[in-house]
Fold this sequence. Notes:
Glutaredoxin, alpha+beta, 8-stranded mixed sheet, FAD/NAD(P)-binding domain, D-Amino Acid Oxidase, Chain A, domain 2
Amino acid sequence: MQSEDVPVLIVGGSLVGLSSAIFLAWHGVPTLNVERHRGTAVHPRAGHFQLRTLELFRSVGLEEIIRRKSEEQYDPNGGIAAVESLAGRELATYIANINSGVADVSPSVRFFMTQQALEPILRTRAEELGAELRYGTELVSFEQDAGGVSAVVKDLDSGVERTVRARYMIAADGNRSPIRERLGIAMRGRGLISHSITIYFRADASALIAGRNLGVIYVFNPELRGFFRLEKSGRSGFLAVNTVGDTSLPEATSVADNVTEARCIELVRAAIGVPDMPVHIDDVATWRAVADNAERYRDGRVFLAGDAAHTMPPNGGFGGNTGVQDAHNLAWKLALAIKGAAGPRLLETYDLERRPLGELTVEQAYTRYVRRTAPYLGTESIQPVVDEWRMEIGYKYHSAAILSEADDDGALHEDPRESRGRPGTRAPHLFLERAGHVVSTLDLFGRHFVLLAGIDGREWCAALRLRSGQTSQQVDGVVVESYRIGPAGDISDPDGRFTDSYGISSSGAVLVRPDGFVAWRAREMIETPQKVLAEAISSILS
């Protein structure tokens, strides 16, 4: 049997698996993805991409190409609303414009895009960065020991098996994850809530959506409850159906039990609201709407990411986005561990940071499912709605890789407009000027630790520089870039907003992790900046 070695084996070649490969390659870590399907997604899933996800794709040079592809499919700035049917009454507006107010907090914008269109772009970028992707290849078995993971993989065309020895393995193998099952990791939460279907169809609904700012369209009528996503032409799209008929009957949630072409045409017509509308069914996918979170995201040298770690109904568009953010959080930590710059406790912070947010996100998706699709389930036990700002860019981390301040309340989220550089939060966005070019603060992050100091914080930067003008230095085996922000600094602040945005004085500083989260902050200069910085970095790296 042939064998090979690789630092990280990724099982899965869809959205989260590809994102994992990109982010690890961005940090210089070779990876191997194995995916049993023979190519990228064939169905247009995961259509609503959130701010944080786009910021992460921006950091690896993908935002512009993804945005252009999105605009081919959907109008930008669509809303999220509920209707009796497309031809019937509008019942509610959940979000009037998905990008209203976004410019104040992010350089990116939200948009709609099918996973079917996105994954080939991710695949190309992963290969450009050096990742190896093998489709039509499945994981047969694996064992792990103190030094790594030994896996057997099989090429499905030739039947040839080979062994892969990896230091770590990422399970991005979907909501029914065989790896999670093999590890005996249980799922906790609401469980199965519907045997749903998604109908991919062609029908001319262009006249019914003309002049209406509708991106995601929830349908609520006696025949069905679910949601539409139509392409910008209004002539094709998909309809997800969660329940049908009388919801007091058990068969209401068993939509997938009665899937015929004639039945699907009936459901599409009922959702459109035109009984004799010509409809062509292209395909139908059956799926389980589940709201569960894994009891742990790590087992030894194996890490769960994406649907393998958390499964949730699509309401709110959290599923794929949360998986991409899992991958980003894990990638820099694995990179530093593989390079010998971090201790084992840094890898423990993946579970400590992502699992509580996974649980929160599952519950928030369930809350939206109940309120928007299944009120018959009752609202007594659901969480109150946490707004999109907090869920997308206002979530907080608490772990040994964050040096929290004394007044930190331990909450999992806060308004991102009020975080002001608090350790554990995403570093705030504002536009600065660097070498004559306008850049977001977020553009400074992504590969290394970054120290941002006020204009009077020369000693912070000097503590990291061996010679005048140098903006990066190795500290405990990791690169730390340092910039003084302000007039005559390394980067100028034309609007004078930096210190207020980051909650420091002109002599203070913040240390931002490679994932763009604030790890440590000093509001003003102290007597021993070099010692304090060294201790902070050492603590973060365990």
